[in-house]
Write a structure and sequence with these properties.
The structure is a single chain. This protein has no helices and four strands. With 74 residues, the chain is mostly beta strands. It has a domain of 43 residues. The chain has a four-stranded antiparallel β-sheet with strand order 1-2-3-4, with no helix packed on it. The protein is globular, with a radius of gyration of 14 Å. The two termini are 21 Å apart. The model has no long low-confidence stretch (mean pLDDT 93). Keywords: Metal-binding, Zinc. Belongs to the Gfa family. One of its GO terms (molecular function) is metal ion binding. This is Glutathione-dependent formaldehyde-activating,GFA.
């Protein structure tokens, strides 16, 4: 989602920042349980946030329509 539509309301002090391979995306992990809550990155459209919806209490994962993407075919 666009970064300007994302607000972290609490818990920033419980997050650890991690950068994989090319250091293009800042992954935010919980220091206690190790879950990746979200990530910060940039797309051609600007700053973005990728959110682990399992960390959003109001989301029922079972009600979502999942569209699988075959990244190798792009």
């Amino acid at each position: 989602m666009p970064a300007d539509q994302f607000t972290l309301e609490s818990g920033a002090d419980h997050l650890a920042d991690y950068l994989f391979y090319k250091h293009a995306i800042r992954h935010q992990f919980c220091k206690t349980c190790g879950t990746e809550a979200f990530a910060l990155g940039t797309s051609p459209n600007g700053d973005m946030r990728a959110i682990n919806l399992r960390c959003v209490p109001s989301i029922d994962i079972d009600t979502l329509t999942i569209t699988k993407v075959d990244g190798a075919s792009f």
